[in-house]
Amino acid sequence: MIAIVMSGGKGSRMKSSEEKLLLHYKKPIILHVAEALSESDCFSNIIFLTSPNSPNTKKLLLENNYEIIESVGKGYVEDLHTILKSISDPVFVTSADLPLLDKNIIKKIVSLYDENHKWTSILITKQFLTKLGISTNYEVSFQNQTCNYSGISMINSDEISNLENIKENFVIFDDKRIAFNVNTQKDYGLLSTT
């Protein structure tokens, strides 16, 4: 399995001059994600997808000897689709703004991979996020619950020719290690309470 880390966003919801993934939570957020993926021993390769929107993040990753691929930075879906076309292995995709991610939660999620599902998205219930004080815009209804995307998916890339009309498989995983997706200053402030 290959890990792809989506690391090229503008971070516009942060309303900060600093690149979001370089914000510190003991160390830059991007390095928390990088180390958790490496320490999980689940992946044959870890690739960071950067873009012109994140030049300093790219620089930090290169300084730490992580493999990067530069995307055009058009958006999450477009950038991901571009890289998926060149991969035939199963893929674990994560957003790079999950500072509480650790090797144990990664192993638990990877153990759920089923090649019979083209795309499995990990969801968190809105109720759980509300309890943590986190709000997000991307809601989906699943098992009679309002849920939100965690930013983590597992993909059978052999079965993906384009990203249209893909039937998603959903798994609910209420765990703060994947719930703390830092998108706003409020989210970042909440990290100190964990």
Short structural description:
The protein is α/β, with parallel strands linked by helices. It is 28% helix and 25% strand. It has one domain: Spore Coat Polysaccharide Biosynthesis Protein SpsA, Chain A, CATH 3.90.550.10.
Question: What keywords describe this structure?
Answer:
194 residues, alpha/beta, Spore Coat Polysaccharide Biosynthesis Protein SpsA, Chain A, 8-stranded mixed β-sheet, 7 helices, 8 strands, globular
Overview of the structural elements:
With 194 residues, the chain is α/β, with parallel strands linked by helices. The chain has a single domain, classed as Spore Coat Polysaccharide Biosynthesis Protein SpsA, Chain A (Alpha-Beta Complex), CATH 3.90.550. It contains 7 helices and 8 strands. Strands 1, 2, 3, 4, 5, 6, 7 and 8 form an 8-stranded mixed beta sheet that branches. Helix 1 packs across helix 4. The chain is globular and about 40 Å long. The protein starts with a strand and ends with a helix.
Strand portion, in percent? 25-35%
Classify the oligomer: single chain
The CATH architecture comes to Alpha-Beta Complex
Radius of gyration, whole Å: 16 Å
CATH third-tier fold name: Spore Coat Polysaccharide Biosynthesis Protein SpsA, Chain A
Helical fraction equals 25-40%
CATH superfamily: Spore Coat Polysaccharide Biosynthesis Protein SpsA, Chain A
Return residue spans where pLDDT drops below 50 for at least 5 consecutive residues.
Answer: none
Mean pLDDT: 84
- Helical stretch count? 7
Shape: globular
For the record, the count of structural domains works out to: 1
Class of secondary structure makeup = alpha/beta
